Amino acid sequence: MTIGDAPVRVALLGCGVVGSQVARILVEQADDLRERVGRPLELVGIGVRRDIPRPGIDPALLTTDVASLVRREDVDIVVEMVGGIEPTLTYLLDAIAAGKSVVTANKALLAQHGDAVFDAARDSDVDVYYEAAVAGAIPIIRPLRESLVGDAITSVLGIVNGTTNYILDQMHTRKSTFADALAEAQSLGYAEADPTADVEGYDAAAKAAILASLAFHTRVHLDDVDREGITEIDVQDIAAAERLGCVVKLLARCTVSADGTVAVGVHPTMVPLEHPLAGIRGAYNAVFVESVNAGRLMFMGPGAGGSPTASAVLGDIVTAARNRVRGVAGPGESAYSTPGITPPGAVRSRYYLSVTVRDEPGVLARVAEAMARQQVSIAAVRQEQGDEGGRAHLGITTHEATHDAVRAVVTHLMSTDDVHGGVRVLRVEGA
Amino acid sequence: MTIGDAPVRVALLGCGVVGSQVARILVEQADDLRERVGRPLELVGIGVRRDIPRPGIDPALLTTDVASLVRREDVDIVVEMVGGIEPTLTYLLDAIAAGKSVVTANKALLAQHGDAVFDAARDSDVDVYYEAAVAGAIPIIRPLRESLVGDAITSVLGIVNGTTNYILDQMHTRKSTFADALAEAQSLGYAEADPTADVEGYDAAAKAAILASLAFHTRVHLDDVDREGITEIDVQDIAAAERLGCVVKLLARCTVSADGTVAVGVHPTMVPLEHPLAGIRGAYNAVFVESVNAGRLMFMGPGAGGSPTASAVLGDIVTAARNRVRGVAGPGESAYSTPGITPPGAVRSRYYLSVTVRDEPGVLARVAEAMARQQVSIAAVRQEQGDEGGRAHLGITTHEATHDAVRAVVTHLMSTDDVHGGVRVLRVEGA
């Protein structure tokens, strides 16, 4: 490769936790980056909402006129680190229309408006790279889009939200309540003041949509993802999981159903300790991929944080810049497949049901019969603890069943006198 | 992407365990591959040594005239699955000179002649992809070459040979001897009749050279790799590792030394159970990467086998074909850096020393003094077992020390009357 002099020029949108790290690395590692790209990478502008002094940042680079920055003639690559949907989407589409390549970590935007962005990029023959949008520093987009592109992926399971993994890990290891573990995550900066996007699974759902789109060469929208957060996970669930040799994880699950449709969901799930995902601790992320030929692969690493996310962003910037130097765009994702989405009620999983019943002869038989009527096959039953008031707790694990069938069982059980209170239902990973 | 009709034409060299799987997938998944490439992938010829019938393979494709096949005008991509150095290297250079892109899994060839191959590919503006050369199905080449290209990698540790990992795993879990575990690996097809390349670490050393070249943007040759096999690992080593809370792994280790030079070695190493690599079982492979910004990443999966290796090869074929469709070559590796190789004796590591000494007052003091004289700092000493003949066994773990210093300690100890027999030395991973 010839080292040229004309720089590849980068505009950065946003100068927060990640953006400031990207700016730092562009300066600190300028010599290495120049060698790797073949030309200098030059940061020519930083779009910010408020024009305030930022330590370590040349004030001359800052501008609040982001709309103009993304179209400036002296910009080759726009790196979007502001998040949100609008005006960000407009910025990105304007940049693409003006012939800029785009690097983004904006999972919510891609999960909702990926179609518009990718189609525009194809029309303008520019790159859209987004390695940092899923699982932070872990290379997972490129492996799915390129390394495994000659294989047939059958499932992708991911721990893709570090905040919830930290909280659930604390609930297991320190027997914290959800509220206490959340408060601790917030005090450590792992959770935001408004933790909704994390604990309700919205963040993981956006990432699941992106993973499923790549794995199955289709386009999965955020709305296609069946989503359940972890706010109702309590100490009883944690204890029940441990009795079963499992840990509770918030699992993004992208699979192919028997009819060829694609099931994409995010649910708190009991994961057996022998599964590689069970060992992912703290705020770490991991993605577990199964394919016809490669078999089982796992990728793990830091799922968030300024520097790790910046590492993924820089990898994308260098790749986009190398393409610029060669005067081409890289191949985009293929999205030729239209398998359709499995309705959430038809998705099959193993389940765990926790039921409080009258401690009388015949009750278990009636519970078992109610399950059999819905084709829900019992794998194991254990009476988990006695109770003072003539009640017993049953912990039932099932073989694979549809969510609709399990819901019908629950509805029936709660209509009988045999059951006290609600029925707690959790998914269980594994065949 | 427009789906064109003109096929991208593939010539396959070799039709063995991996080659036959590649041929199978090219046929079975032709529809999906066409969509992903944008044009059909057509297998136009298979070069073989002996012209014998091969089940499932169209005989019209087979040719023993490999030298002509690699230069045929109707070939776009040459997929090399024959292994060995010559005539394979000539085939590859001829193919590249004739403008073909190349996909190979030949780690030995790349570790010894990578310079010639990569330079030729650059001159001819064609692709050389080799994802299957290291860690089988695990995407690691592309993550190092592209995803982490904006980061500064500080170390790569790998379990990159499934045969030796299987043998060591059996020695731990079933207390097998090395000979028994090797025999079992051979009977299961995990080890070849002549296991030298695996058990003596040559295979892992070639992979280490490739990983270090990519991680540090330089060119590391097989001869630069300090290599030690596992044939001398015995049940005492395994037991000692377990007493220290470790497992023995054959570890490929690529690190940056304090003076900026690069240390690349393959050694049986005690890995603490809490390290993610300690959990890699059986014939699985894993690569553990640390970088300044991303932090700690790990990639794991099947390290060998026809289908897993074919998955990686197909990913490379699709990527090379996509580039052909676009009329470009992808960016190659950057190898601009010339840090130099740390002399093996100067590489720093923690060590474990097992010494049989006279069970007398003053002996431990003299051993400790000998170590101090060489600046080898003791982390822990335990008297591991008593002995009938007035002897004691010492298990000593050290802080980081150079290999030269440890060797000097051993030489000195063996020259004294205090020590009986040899001194067993193993590396210990961890800071």
TrEMBL record, chains A, B:
Chain sites annotated for binding NADP(+): L13, G14, C15, G16, V17, V18, G19, S20
GO biological process: methionine biosynthetic process; threonine biosynthetic process
Entry-linked PROSITE patterns: ACT, HOMOSER_DHGENASE
Pathway linked to the protein: Amino-acid biosynthesis; L-threonine biosynthesis; L-threonine from L-aspartate: step 3/5; Amino-acid biosynthesis; L-methionine biosynthesis via de novo pathway; L-homoserine from L-aspartate: step 3/3
InterPro entries the UniProt entry points to: ACT-like_dom_sf, ACT_dom, Asp/hSer_DH_NAD-bd, HDH, HDH_cat, HDH_CS, NAD(P)-bd_dom_sf
Catalytic activity annotation: L-homoserine + NADP(+) = L-aspartate 4-semialdehyde + NADPH + H(+); L-homoserine + NAD(+) = L-aspartate 4-semialdehyde + NADH + H(+)
Molecular function terms, GO-annotated: homoserine dehydrogenase activity; NADP binding
Boundaries of every ACT domain copy: 352-427
Catalytic-site annotation from UniProt: K207 (proton donor)
Lineage top rank: taxon: Bacteria
Cofactor field: a metal cation
Family annotation (NCBIfam families): PRK06349.1
Family to which this protein belongs: Belongs to the homoserine dehydrogenase family.
Descriptive protein name: Homoserine dehydrogenase
